[in-house]
Amino acid sequence: MSPAPVEHPSDVRWETRLLGVIAATLTVFGIASVYSAASFDAQGGREVLKQLSAAAVGAFALLVVARIDYQRWRGWAWPLLGLTVILLAVLLVPGLGAINRKINGARRWINLPGASFQPSELARFAVVVWAAMMAAKKGDQIRQFKKGMGPVLVVTGFVSLLVLLEPNLSMATILVLLGGVVLFTAGARIGQFMLLFVFVVFLGVGAIMAKPYRFHRAKCFLGLAANCEEQTDWQLNQATKGFAAGRLTGTGFGEGQLKLHYLPEASSDFLFSTVGEEWGFLGVMFLLGMFGVTCWLGFRIAQTAPDPFGQYLATGLTASIGLTALMHMAVNMGLMPTTGLALPFMSSGRSNLMVTLLGVGVLISVGRMRGRAALR
Amino acid sequence: MAKSEARIQALQGILLLGALAMAVRAGYLQLVKGGHYAQVVARQRTEHRVLDAPRGVIYDRSGTALAASLEQYHVDVAGNQIRSPEAFIAIYRTDIGKRTELLRQALRSGEDFYANGPFTAGQVRRIRGMKGVYLRPIYRREYPSGPLARPLIGALSPDSARGTSGLERFLDSLLQGRPGEAVFIKDAAGRTYESPGRMARAPIRGYDVTLTIDKELQEIAEGGLSAVFKEFTPQRADIIFLNPRTGEVLAAASREVDDAGRPLATASFFQSSFEPGSTAKPFTAAALLSLDRVKPGDQVAPEGGHWKLPLRNGRFRPITDDHPQKVPLSLARTIQVSSNIGIVKFSTRLNPDEHFDALRSFGFGSPTGVEFPAEASGKLYRPDEWRPGEHGPSVAMGYNVEVTPIQLAAAYGAIANDGLLLAPTVIKEIRSPEGKVVYRHEPLVVRRAVSARVAEEIRGFLALSAADSGTGGQAQVKGVVLGKTGTAKLVINRRYSNEHAASFAGIFPAKDPQLVVVVRVEKPHGVYYGGFVAAPLVRRMLSQALSARKTALDRSRLADDQVVQTGARPADSGPPAPRTWVELPLRPVTPRIENRLVPDVVGFSSRAAAASLHRRGFRVRLDGLGSITRTLPEAGDSLAAGKTVTVFANRERP
Question: Is the Cβ of B195 closer than 8 Å to some Cβ of chain A?
């Protein structure tokens, strides 16, 4: 199998254009949904303004990054990872007061005057870039555990551990998965993945057992625990109920009632439920379609990328969007235990939006370079 | 590279599977389970709230409000919706309350604030309609005329939702109105968000009721009660003013105290009966005249005030007069001086059936049907329960028979109204919230109690009785009051005690009567004769009524009253002088006796059937006991009032 021959620059670029249009569409839809979900909140207006500012910054970043040769990211991979680790470490330093204040029992945000930032969102991007760079550099060595898979896993695992300590189990899981996706694409042995899988399962179970609230949520999910309705499961139940109440066509924009404090994170962790309630099955299908096309375009770009680094980079970034979206939806529809994962492009949260748009920028950059490679 | 592409394909496949799973799950939840969950969510997140309807107003006959519902408000403030908190707090401080710390705190943190007033419409005028301000109306019963006529009006339950006594209770379903309903969206904390488009049903205010009560006469009556309590410290007193032409109750006042002198809430004018004593004598006299048992010139011996009535068993019952008479007693003289001996002697000319029928015709022993809860029916024993030769004389003197003040007033009304008994009423008019009259009182003739001629003669007797030489002389005003006093021993623990009920029943004026007044005073201290306790009170009240600004009295018709004074001439000798009124004939009353339909009472208890038939003015003959199987004439047949309807019950009389 070889990449499809590319004949003309204009043929090359329809994917990247469509990708840009979809990213813009999802972002705008997201801002509208956040507005609706937060409309009953006193701070609702501010939430939307923050989201708009992040969209502006993210769009600018996308346009800039899309025009930069993605090869440069090879050189930026280590510094980026280093920055990420430092930021993640700051979260874990006690005694910093307001800077890494606990919110809802977790330190996930670095709060600076006028802005706050979620380093784990950056990690989602940094890990992919770094892993892609490493995998491309190792080439065939990747098949050896010691030289290939091992080092990559150790670094990814370390970053993931930092995130896990925030604590943020779901993001930590995503990071490990993304590292795995890049290695898998780069040709790592399936057998080693089996081992990795077993290891991750043990790790996951261990992490779940470590915290009572996680254990309880897991039990609730499996239907093994009592008093779920009143406690932890409340969000999930409300989200699923509200989602289902949307039926075919939804209650209409702004008419949903999940946001009436039935759902504490209606505009972020449970945005998909809000959309499902207000736009119904048709809206859900639209969203699934949009994310599906995004992934299809991303993978298409990856398959036709001019070099292995571009290929791994595009695959990792695409998987980052696709996996996060899938997990967010699964949680919202009661298929997974409750975790705090944002829906890419859409959920409120500036870090998420900006990093996602940044990723799309890199993806477009890879796509744009295909033509040049073919012409070379 | 080739390997990578295959692996990307695999990844794509995995994600596609995931997407498919999501689609299936979404379809299952939204399309299969959606309907069910939509209902669950709607139940959980909406709240139906009842919007109170204002209760109807109760007016006196001239439109003065006696009881009205005042709209007041609780104030809910949504802290995060107030545009300018400082301005709002300033207004709140001047209009509603000085304590604003909590409000300030709520506004700062964007929380909700509840001010439980209730606050008046004036207080909330400026904040009404502001964004973030939600007024919850509540209704409080206010009494613009103070405590006036309160026993009649009655009371409400503490939440002002239901009438618990008096007219508030009797007319509850009319006054209540229909509560509205609004749908609120409710959040997880139970806070509601009003959306005006969601008012499911607007509240409809209750019907307004205009009473027949005349505020001024009511004030006069209640002032009379105060006076009588001050002078005689009785346990209970009632006053009723009635318009004999229409049956309208113009004033009804009661006051009662317990043994410790504390006031009791009571409506004893309708709800408690008493043995009337001499005020019932005219009805026996009416029976005698109706049946022609007393001829002009008939007289009985006065026996010097002490007489022994021979009984069947050979014993004697002593009958005494408080004012021993020396000259032979005519029937007129008997009423005038209220002679027990006279009326007992005359009453022996009636058999129990005749005597019973006469009193029954005047409404004794059956409720008048006045619009009031728990009206007492008084007591009149069936003639077959009368002990021959003993019960009759008692009844003639006003014992062994019980009436309520309203029954007595209605019976005197029949005498004033040329023999026609009218159903008394306290309701003049009922209007719907739109102002449409849904009910207006029309005089309702119950039956003809006696002929116009007999009624006129009795009025002549009453004129003598209320003349200076009669026992009721102290009630006289301008010489045009007709009336009869009563003084009866009270039955306490089934024995006649030394406590008395003093009463007076009067008609005013003599020509073309406009008022019937009944006064009952129970357990007065000091003097206890009706002529000294009740009669002067009547004089005082009538004088006040005459000088009042706008009572129901028609003064123009009082202009030639002095002429009638000739009728008040003492009639010690010979036949009575009621003929005085022949030259001033009383106009016939407006209501006519019409044929009416026999109601369908099949299946009723005999008691309920009798009540229903009585209400329509029929006499009732009962054949058997238990529930009614048929009537003769049958239901739907037309029959003149006063005719007898026989009702057949399914069980034989034991």
Answer: no
Query: Which residue is listed with tokens 């105060």?
Result: B226
Q: Do A247 and B40 touch (CB under 8 A)?
A: no
A370 pLDDT tier (thresholds 50, 70, 90): confident
| DSSP of B444-468 | -EEEE-S-HHHHHHHHHHHHHHTST
The reply to whether B311 falls in a domain is yes
Which residue of A181, A192, A240, A281 is the best one to mutate when testing the B interface, meaning the one whose CB has the most B CBs within 10 A? A281
A248 contacts in chain B (CB < 8 Å): 30-31, 34
3-class SS of residue B98:
coil
Residue to test with chain B: of A182, A231, A247, most B Cβ within 10 A = A247
Q: What confidence tier does A337 reach under pLDDT thresholds 50, 70, 90?
A: confident
Residues 150-189 on A with a CB inside 8 Å of B are: 181, 184-187
Pairwise CB contact (< 8 Å): B193 & A40: yes
CATH of the domain at B644: 3.30.10.20
* Bigger pLDDT: B436 vs A43: B436
Q: Is beta strand B515-522 parallel, antiparallel or unpaired with respect to B236-243?
A: antiparallel
Confidence of residue A359 (pLDDT cuts 50, 70, 90): very high
Interface of B with A in 78-117 (CB under 8 A): 80, 110
Is B2 at the interface with chain A, CB within 8 A?
A: yes
Q: Indicate if B333 and B290 belong to the same structural domain.
A: yes
Is the residue at B583 inside a domain? Answer: no
Tokens 């488009």 found at: B197
Domain ranges of chain A: 9-375
As to burial, measured by CB atoms within 10 angstroms (0-12 exposed, 13-18 middle, 19+ buried), residue B468 is exposed
Amino acid identity, position A286: F
Q: Which residues of A touch B42 (CB under 8 A)?
A: 245
B618 in the same domain as B558:
no
Contact B30 A247 (CB under 8 A): yes
**pLDDT at res. B571:** 36
**Which residues are CB-contacts of A160 (< 8 A; sequence separation ≥ 6)?**
A172, A173, A175, A176, A179
Choosing from B163, B180, B207, the residue where a domain stops is B207
* pLDDT tens digits along B298-355: 899 888 888 998 888 888 888 988 888 888 999 999 998 889 999 999 999 999 999 9
| Enclosing domain of residue B635 | 595-649
> What is the DSSP code (8-state) at residue B548?
S
Give the count of domains, chain B.
4
Of the candidates B572, B606, B638, which is a domain's last residue?
A: B572
- Cβ–Cβ contact A335 with B under 8 A: yes
A315 and B11: CB-CB below 8 Å? yes
CB distance B505 to B514 below 8 Å: no
Q: Model ipTM?
A: 0.87
- In this prediction the pTM is 0.61
Residues 3-22, chain A: which have Cβ within 8 Å of B? 3
Answer yes or no: do A326 and B19 touch at CB < 8 A. yes
Give the pLDDT confidence of A114-138 residue by residue, as tens digits.
677 888 899 999 999 999 999 998 8
Which residue of A lies nearest to B46 if distances are taken between CA atoms?
A257
Model confidence band, residue B198 (pLDDT cutoffs 50, 70, 90): low
B20 touches A at CB < 8 Å = no
Query: Which is it for strands B644-651 and B619-623: parallel, antiparallel or unpaired?
Result: parallel
The span from the CA of A273 to the CA of A243, in Å, is 5
SS3 percent helix, strand, coil of chain B, rounded to 5, is: 35, 30, 35
Size of interface A-B (CB pairs under 8 A): 129
- Residue that wins the pLDDT comparison between B575 and B315: B315
Q: Burial, B614: exposed, middle or buried (Cβ in 10 Å; 0-12, 13-18, 19+)?
A: buried
Mean pLDDT computed over A253-268: 67
